[in-house]
């Protein structure tokens, strides 16, 4: 099923109401209707867009995802008006809708009315002044959220997203594997203990070793892992659930467990399965280097988070953050700095004023 509103549905374009920037106002989203028509191979998503002051906002979940192609090709309905968004934005909302109950168990009280914050919709992308103001508030938006959803993306069509998580577990552990004491394992992750005690289930339920390798590559080659913005989004959020899949076909894992497994997957001495997986991949040098960079970038998240918790300075220095996130990927070079502002020491942060004009002038102004 594609994630596109019916092409024959005509609606007036949605027009944003301006935010009151001096009061710290933001927008939040609530999904009000989802209509799936398998025969027409289409999905209709209808949402409400709400205004609220950040310091008065009710519980909301902030979404972290990769934009992908920025072209606005997919239509959302907002009170009957049409709002065009990138395909990945549409797909993310569609999958979050289906995973809502599981995500609520992970991140907030089940049954609680929770709104969403997602940048492509909650920030008017046509208003440069608003974008600059909201970029300055990005750290607050994620740190004040009830939790964050890290939408990793989806595997190729026909592949089970759960296989990526299971293969990561199998690759990073041996039969005596136990989760660290400080990583909570709730009912949603009960399968981890079952699979770690019975590694033979992988061969029985997933398939041959080559399929493990494919599932691992599909998961960790996602662009989400390499985004510079993801570091701040994940480091500053209170609780984080990672979502992988598309629509009703999804898998959820807490970020704490995911990063623990990624750490294990890079340690062949801890795994009887590590070399079997890597030998089955037979990747070319470019693919191997891309995967290794993403693994290193992801491992930097937990290091930065630990340091921020241990230090009393309230942040890290800009140069230190740039060095640690050197493998990160940005579309706009300015984002390499802007994406770190929420983690910076106050003197560094206050010295930076985001400028998002499409044209970056590098000279003296003329009169």
UniProtKB/TrEMBL annotation:
Domain Heterokaryon incompatibility, residue spans: 60-233
One Pfam family it belongs to: HET
Membrane-spanning ranges: none
Protein name, as recorded: Heterokaryon incompatibility protein-domain-containing protein
């Amino acid at each position: 099923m594609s994630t596109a509103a019916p092409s024959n549905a005509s609606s007036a374009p949605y027009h944003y109401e301006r935010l009151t920037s001096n009061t710290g106002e933001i927008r939040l989203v609530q999904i009000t209707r989802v209509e799936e028509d398998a025969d027409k191979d289409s999905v209709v998503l209808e949402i409400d867009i709400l205004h609220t002051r950040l310091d008065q906002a009710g519980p909301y979940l902030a979404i972290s995802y990769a934009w992908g192609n920025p072209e606005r090709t997919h239509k959302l309905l907002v009170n009957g008006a049409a709002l065009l968004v990138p395909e990945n934005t549409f797909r993310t909302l569609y999958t979050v809708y289906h995973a809502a109950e599981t995500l609520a168990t992970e991140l907030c009280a089940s049954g609680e009315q929770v709104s969403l914050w997602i940048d492509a919709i909650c920030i008017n992308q046509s208003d440069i002044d608003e974008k600059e103001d909201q970029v300055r508030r990005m750290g607050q938006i994620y740190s004040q959220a009830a939790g964050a959803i890290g939408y990793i993306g989806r595997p190729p069509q026909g592949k089970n997203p759960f296989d990526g998580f299971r293969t990561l577990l199998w690759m990073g552990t041996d039969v005596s594997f136990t989760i660290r004491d400080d990583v909570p394992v709730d009912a949603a992750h009960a399968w981890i203990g079952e699979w770690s005690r019975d590694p033979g289930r992988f061969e029985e339920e997933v398939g041959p070793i080559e399929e493990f390798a494919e599932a691992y590559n599909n998961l960790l080659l996602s662009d989400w892992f390499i985004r510079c913005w993801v570091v701040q989004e994940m480091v500053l959020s209170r609780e984080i659930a990672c979502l992988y899949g598309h629509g009703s076909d999804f898998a959820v894992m807490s970020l704490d467990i995911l990063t623990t497994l990624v750490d294990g997957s890079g340690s062949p001495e801890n795994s009887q399965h590590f070399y079997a997986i890597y030998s089955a991949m037979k990747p070319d040098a470019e693919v191997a280097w891309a995967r290794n960079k993403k693994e290193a970038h992801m491992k930097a998240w937990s290091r930065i988070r630990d340091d921020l918790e241990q230090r009393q300075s309230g942040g890290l220095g800009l140069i230190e953050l740039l060095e640690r996130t050197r493998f990160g990927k940005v579309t706009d070079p300015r984002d390499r700095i802007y994406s770190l502002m929420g983690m910076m020491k106050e003197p560094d942060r206050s010295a930076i004023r985001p400028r998002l004009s499409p044209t970056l002038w590098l000279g003296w102004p003329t009169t």
